[in-house]
Amino acid sequence: MTVTKYSFGVTRAGAPVTAYRMENKTGASVTVLDYGATVQSLCVPDRTGRLVDVVLGYDTIGEYEENDGFLGATVGRVCNRIGGASFSLSGKTYSLAKTIGAHHLHGGVRGFDKYIWQAEPMAESLRFSRLSPDGEEGYPGNLTVTVTFRLTEDNCLVVTYDGDTDRDTIVNLTNHSYFNLNGGGTALDHRLQLFAQQMTENNSDSVPTGRILPVEDTPFDFRAGKTIRQDIDAENEQLRFGGGYDHNYVLSGPTAAHLTGDKSGIRLTVTTTMPGVQLYTANSLTERTGKGGVTLRPRDAVCLETQLFPDGMAHYGFPSPVLRAGEHLHSETGYAFTLA
Question: Residue 190 catalytic?
Answer without folding.
Answer: no
